[in-house]
Request: fold
Amino acid sequence: MILRPRIGITILIVVGLAVLAGGWWFRSKGDKGTPFRTVPIKRGNLVATVSATGTVEPEIVVDVGAQVAGMISSFGKDKNGRTVDYGSVVDESTVLAKIDDSLYAAAVESAKAQLQQATANEMSAEANVLQMKANLLKAQNDWGRAQKLGPSDALSQSSYDQYQASYEVAKANLAASEAAVQQTKATMAQAKATLATARLNLGYCTIKSPVKGVIIDRRVNIGQTVVASLSAPSLFLIANDLKRIQVWMSVNEADVGGISIGQPVTFTVDAYPERVFRGEVGKIRLNATMTQNVVTYTVEVNTKNDDGKLLPYLTANAKFTIGHRENVLLVPGAALRWSPRPNQVAPETRPKLHARVESPRGGHSGSSGEVGGSQMHGTIWVEQGRFVRPLYVRIGLTDGSSTEVEGKDVIEGLRIVVGQTAEGSATASGTERSPLMPQPFGRGARQGQGGPEGSPGGGPSTQR
Reply:
C-alpha cells in the first residue's frame, strides 16, 4: 500500500520528461526561425570623409645660421629679460648669441691701418703730380727759348737737343705721376672694401633675430665652435607666428582627387584627444612621394591657434569632408558586402538574376562611393521566408559604416540582410547543390561569399 504513491509519482516524472523531450525534438525538427540577420533601412544624415595623418607645422619657420666661424661666447636676452632658450619670445633684431670676435676685431684694425696707408700714398702721389707739372713747365719754357735761338753760335747743337729731351722727359714724368695717383686711389678703394668686409664679419659675430617670433629649437651651447664653410651652420629655429599654424597631411593618391582648396577639415591630436580642431585646405603640393609603391601627396591645412594649444610637430589625425547628405536612406556597409549562395536565392528570381549576370549591360558595380560625381550600383537582399530576393540600388556617398542608397523599392524601415546566423551558415554549407540549380554567381560564391564585386550578388568594392 505504501509503494503505490511512490510508483505514481515516478510515473508522473517519467511522463513529464517524455513530454519535454518530445517538445524539444519537435522544435528542433520544426520551424527553426529565420537563418538571416536583418536590419531596417534608416533615414538620416551622412557626412563622407577621407582620413589622413600628418604633423603640426609652424606656418613660417626661419632657420637662423652663422656666417662666420668661431666659438659661442654668450647668449642674448629675450623679450622677458631671460637668457635666450627654447620657447623664448624674441623681437626683430633681438641679440640671440655672440661669437668670439677677437680675430674679427683685429682684422678690422688691420684694415683701418691699410686704409690709412692707402690714403697717405694717394696724398703723396697727388703732391708728386704737382711737382711733375712744375718740372714740365720749366722744361717747356727752356725748350721754347731753345727753339727760338736754334742751333747757332749762341746755342750749341748739344744744348739744343738737351732742352728738347728735358721737355719730353718732363711730360712723361707727369703722365707717370698721374697714373700713380689713379693707382693709389684704387688701392684706397680696395682698403675701404677690406675694412667694410672686416666690419661686416665683426657684425656677424652678433647673431640677431631676423623676425619676431618664438624660438622652437636652440642648436648650440656656450663654448661650442661653429664652422661656416660651404653652408651656414644652423643655430636657432624661429617660428614667426604660432597663432597661425599648418598641418601637413599625407593623403593617398586614391583619395587626393576628392580634396580641393578651401575644403573644411577636422582633426585631433593625441595631446588633446577630446578636442576637435578645425581648418581648411590651403594647398595641395604636387611633389608626391612614393614609399613601398604607395604614392602620397602632402596637403597643407591652415588653422588658427589663438590659444597656443597646438604645439609644433604634434601628430594630427584629420578627416577631410568630401560630401554631405541630409535626410537620405542609409544601409550598413555589411548589407552591400553580403551575398547569398545560389540555393539561398528565391527560386522565382534565380532565372532573372542569372540573366542579369549573363547580360553585358546587366552588371552592377559594387563600389560603395561616388567617383567623379557618378553614382554606382549595387545589390542588397531582402528576406523572403527561408530565401532572399535581390533589391538593386544606386549607391551614393559612404562614411565607412553607412552608405546612401536609392532605388524604386527602397523604403525606410524595410529590413535587409546583413549576414546569416550560425544555423543558416551551417545549413547553406551543408546543402548539396543540384546540377539543375544556377551556378554560383562568380568568384565570391565559390569562396562562400556570394557573387563578385560588380555582379548582382556581389558586394561593394573596398571603401576609401
Observations:
- The chain is about 30% helix and 30% strand.
- The longest strand covers residues 315-332.
